[in-house]
Amino acid sequence: MDDTPVTGLPQVGELGALDYVVIALMLLISSGIGLYYRCTGGRQATLQEYMMADRSMSVLPVAFSLMASFMSAITLLGLVQEMYMYGTMFIMINISYIIATPIVCYFYLPVFFRLQKTSVYEYLELRFGYPTRLCASIAFSLQMILYMGIVLYAPALALSAVTGLSRNLCILVVGSVCTFYSALGGIKAVLITDVMQSLLMFAAVGIVLVTGLQSFSVSEVFQIAGDSGRLQFFVLDPDPRVRTTLWTQVIGGCFTYLSLYGVNQTQVQRLLTIRSLRKSQCAVWLEWPILMVLSLTTSFAGLLIYAHYKDCDPLLAGIIHNSDQLLPQYVVQFANSTPGITGLFIAGVFSGSLSTVSSSLNSLSAVTISDYIEPLIRKLRPGTKVALPAHFAPLISVCFGIVCIGIAFLTAVLGSGVLQASLTVFGAVGGPLLGLFTLAMTTTRANEKGALPGLILGLFLSLWIGFGQPKPAPEYMPRSTDGCYTDNYTTIATTLATTATTTDTTTYTPPPGDDFNFLHEMYAISYAWIGAIGFFITYIIGLLLSILMA
Fold first, then answer.
1. d(CA 474, CA 339)
2. What is the rounded CA–CA span in Å between residue 441 and residue 128?
């Protein structure tokens, strides 16, 4: 094991010509796939082909797309940060994937497959009327726009840390490219590029594993993590304010997974591009091990990075200014000796966001046409058959792409790390939506008079708890700068180390009064419970009001 102190840590790295070639090649191939599907087959001449691929897709690309649509750059940057700063408790969320996958396959998916509608929210209109459908669709649109902002911000953060390029420029590049090929090639282009981009994400993680295991054995990595207290798998504390426990990961993780893969427009729309229900279910089952492999390997990469930095934490040393930059900092320091490797890593992080944003743009285009424009036309012109031209969908995708780029510039104000921020967004909106769909599918006593107020209340309370301020300061695992030296071997001052962490914590001064105590306890609830809270509020209130107002 190499215990040599880290000296002269670089803050930014110089990319070579081959690095730029690798990045440019990935961007060009992604754009080329969009052009290919624009010029071949049906040439995206109908909305059915643009948004549903004429139900002609096979299992494998859909399975990869299901994973890549959400577990992308967030996984690469956020999971590394999670393992490094908080420990391994988050890994137990993989148990929830095992529990929730059959529920998705055999409870939620058959309902949408029998319906065969472009928008999943059409089902809500059949059960609860158009106002409920509209409210749910708007909530989904808000959810995806916020999420796209987060995943555009993530690779921009990586590139600014590694190359010194402008973060805003990186956001514009990623946002523009994914908007381009998504708008041109429709869902076919999105699904095929997802396969390539998924492989590049695995390659990015592989760079860390191959590089790190040259200095540490697997047993040494776990030994170092254990000595620092990072190996935690069975924290059973029932306190909902504890950030991650076995209960938050297994129970809370189930609600998050179900909201993502059971009733989310982006995922269901992909599953409906397959012709048969059985094959669509196979895609979900195949997505599960792909997701777990990426999750577990990225988690181990986080422990590897801690093993390298255990005596010289780059955040405390002021080398980086946010824990989300740990992964790119490691790559530029330890993996840039081979030409093109840094470029491959950047391409992998780029790919993560490209796949997620392009999938979201396509689904937002679908719900805008199906839930907003077509119902409006039918209302203004009763009896008129609605048949929008196919070019409407690409134009809407472009508009959402522009909005997404704008939102990305504001993402940093979430202040809780890209992984936690993304899960908070999905919990706060996805939980109530999951509760609404489950209410519609499990009881005939529910009606619009109860379902719509239940959804609104669930959304309000979930967003309030999830994003209310001030939040208590996070508690990080122990880190050290004892092994840090400058180029002249002068120990870095502790005051510098303390100052360097101010951008990665939340500082607040408790105001006096009993009211604050109540709010403080509510805001302190773990982000992992937000989805479950939203689910139960929506379901219970929706059912009770339906019975009372029947």
1. 38
2. 11
Tokens found for residue 8: 């002269």
Question: What's the gap between Cα 168 and its chain centre?
Answer: 20
User: Tokens in use for 448?
Assistant: 């619009």
Q: Which residues of the chain have pLDDT under 50?
A: 1-11, 415-416, 487-511, 514-515
In a domain, 361, yes or no: yes
- Closest Cα partner for 198 from 335, 293, 279? 293
Backbone angles phi, psi at 485, to 5 degrees: -135, 145
Q: Are 269 and 363 in contact (CB under 8 A)?
A: yes
Q: Contact, 340 vs 218, CB < 8 A?
A: no
Alpha-carbon dihedral sign for residues 327, 218, 204, 342 = positive
Those residues whose C-beta lies under 8 Å from the C-beta of residue 4, and which sit 6 or more positions away, are none
Q: 493-507 burial string, b = 16+ CB within 10 Å, else e?
A: eeeebeebbeebeee
* C-beta contacts of 411-417 below 8 A and 24+ residues apart: 411/149, 411/150, 411/152, 411/153, 412/153, 414/150, 415/506, 416/471, 416/474, 416/506, 416/527, 417/78, 417/81, 417/82, 417/85, 417/323, 417/324
Domain membership of residue 299 as a residue range: 20-414
Give domain status of residue 524, yes or no: no
CATH of the domain at 37: 1.20.1730.10
φ, ψ for residue 280, nearest 5 deg: -65, -40
* Model-wide pTM > 0.70: yes
- At residue 13, the pLDDT reads 58
CA distances from 42 to 32, 184, 197, 451 (A): 17, 12, 24, 40
The model's pLDDT over 66-85, given as tens digits with 9 standing for 90+, comes to 998 777 777 788 899 999 99
Separation CA 529–CA 454 (nearest Å): 18
What integer pLDDT is reported at residue 497 of this predicted model? 37
- Write the CB contacts of 62 (distance below 8 Å, at least 6 apart in sequence): 191, 270, 271, 273, 274, 280, 283
Q: Specify if 329 maps to a domain.
A: yes
Report d(CA 344, CA 339) in Å as an integer.
Answer: 10
Q: How many domains does the chain have?
A: 1
